[in-house]
Amino acid sequence: MTAAEKFREEGREKGREEGIEQGRIKQQRAILERLFVKQFGALSPLAEARIAQESSLDTLERWTDAVLSVESADAVFES
Question: pLDDT tens digits for 20-35?
């Protein structure tokens, strides 16, 4: 394998990993939105924007867990 081929393969692998991560983030947003609606009713524009703009999987997972234990929609984002 030449250096150029190795470089291309490393680029492909990195692209695959980034794509998988983006897919996990998108899936976690969908789960969070679904649970949020079941727990608190329709998403407010502010909640919808916060969820859509968040790019940290850890934060989205923390918010998803919070939906199940907090008293209000606003409290989800304080966790």
Answer: 899 999 999 999 999 9
Query: Tokens 């524009």 label which residue?
Result: 45
Strand (E) positions, 1-79?
Answer: none
Give the pair of three-digit tokens for residue 68.
């199940």
Q: Give yes or no for a contact between 65 and 33, defined as CB atoms under 8 angstroms apart.
A: no
d(CA 18, CA 67): 27
Q: What is the pLDDT of residue 63?
A: 97
Backbone angles phi, psi at 11, to 5 degrees: -65, -40
pTM across the whole model: 0.82
Rounded Cα–Cα distance for residues 77 and 75 (Å): 5
